[in-house]
Specification:
Layout: H1 2-42, E1 47-54, E2 57-68, E3 73-74, E4 81-82, H2 87-100, H3 110-113, H4 126-130, H5 152-155, H6 176-190, H7 194-203, E5 212-213, E6 227-229, E7 235-237, H8 247-250, E8 252-254, H9 256-267, H10 274-281, E9 299-302, E10 308-316, E11 319-326, E12 331-337, H11 345-355
Antiparallel strand pairs: 1-2, 1-12, 2-3, 4-8, 5-8, 6-7, 9-10, 10-11, 11-12
Helix pairs in contact: 1-11, 2-6, 2-7
């Protein structure tokens, strides 16, 4: 009898606690929804998608506004947005997969894998490239809005003959082109095209069915249109761009829930080893010992509770995005928009404060 009573008391406590958690989450989501809607209106964002998971369970996923203003096509959870630079941490996991197979060493020279890449004054490693410490330049001129469809290999011609900006290791200099180079490393090492590798080895295993290459010359029915704000504060379609050659650094599209799957793989890896994942998440230092707060494809920081957060923002033509991963809280927050230059951290900071007690 005593055992039965203890069991009933435990079940009552468990049910009551679960109900309290459900009510608390419902209150957080209601507040978050109001906050997101107000942010959408204030910043004149055509469309936005937000998704949040905790302990591997979907807490909230919702679309706001329009994927296409003219046709009044609403954003839904399946809507695909340009990820922009969130493509970098995704590609970093591709590197980890090859490291797990002993086909790639983060600390090895890039020239080991690409012996024909033009020689520079200094050597540099995969890790330095992935941490923006190799001295490879970023965009210049109108390269950001380049609308010439090229393969990854062809796209290397944009920067491959340029000198390094600085001696590798001395300066943190953000470079999407460095990630172009890493995608060439991946496809040369794996001996399959980069996009096929990522699809077969990462997206399919994680069931990221809405994540793919942003194709500049094809209609993609679930893909949002891409908007910019003019100097007169009008919202108009942005110019067409071709991101195929820089997919690794900024050319994937996905829906928000796919990024929850990705974020949960970082919290509880099932497809990559803890060892090679952890190396992506350790912030690198410049040669004078200063932390860059960036590992290999992942920004690193702490929450208000001094717990770790791994993140990456994205800014592209018709896209401002953010991915936040909180391993201690087992929380993932994703915000995707179809407007350039949105002050998105204003929103994600409020969401972080809501969902982290």
């Amino acid at each position: 009898m005593r055992n039965i009573i203890c069991t009933l008391l435990f079940l009552s406590f468990f049910i009551a606690t679960s109900q309290e958690i459900a009510i608390a989450n419902a209150e957080k989501i209601a507040t978050a929804k109001e906050t997101a809607q107000a942010f959408l209106v204030k910043e004149q964002i055509p469309g936005m998608s937000i998704a949040v998971s905790q302990k591997g369970t979907l807490l909230w996923s919702e679309g706001f506004g329009y994927a296409d203003i003219a046709s009044k096509t609403k954003v839904v959870p399946g809507t695909q947005f340009r990820l922009a630079s969130i493509s970098k941490p995704i590609t970093a996991v591709g590197l980890a997969i090859l490291a797990d197979r002993n086909q790639l060493d983060y600390n090895e020279s890039v020239y080991t894998y690409l012996p024909d890449f033009p020689k520079k004054k200094y050597d540099f490693t995969v890790k330095q490239v992935g941490g923006h410490l190799a001295g490879i330049r970023h965009y210049k001129g109108n390269e950001f809005i380049l609308n010439k469809k090229m393969s990854i290999t062809e796209g290397l011609s944009i920067f491959k003959n340029d000198s390094l900006m600085s001696k590798p290791g001395t300066n943190y200099q953000y470079s999407t082109y460095g990630w172009n180079l890493l995608s060439e490393v991946i496809q040369q090492v794996a001996k399959v095209p980069f996009n096929k590798f990522m699809t077969d080895e990462l997206f399919r295993p994680l069931k990221m069915t809405h994540t793919e290459l942003d194709l500049s010359d094809q209609k993609m029915p679930n893909r949002t249109l891409f908007y910019i704000k003019t100097n007169s504060n009008s919202i108009v379609l942005g110019p067409p761009v071709s991101n195929e050659h820089k997919v690794a650094g900024g050319g994937f599209i996905a829906n928000a829930e796919d990024l929850l799957l990705f974020g949960n793989e970082i919290i509880h890896p099932t497809h990559i080893s803890e060892k090679n994942l952890s190396e992506l998440l350790v912030p690198q230092n410049t040669s004078d010992g200063k932390s860059t707060n960036y590992g290999i494809g992942f920004g690193t920081g702490t929450t208000k509770n001094n717990t770790p957060v791994y993140s990456h923002s994205g800014g592209g033509m018709g896209a401002t995005t953010y991915l936040l991963i909180y391993p201690k809280e087992e929380l993932v927050i994703v915000v995707l928009t179809n407007l350039s230059q949105v002050p998105i951290r204003d929103l994600t900071k409020k969401l972080e404060d809501l969902f982290i007690d």
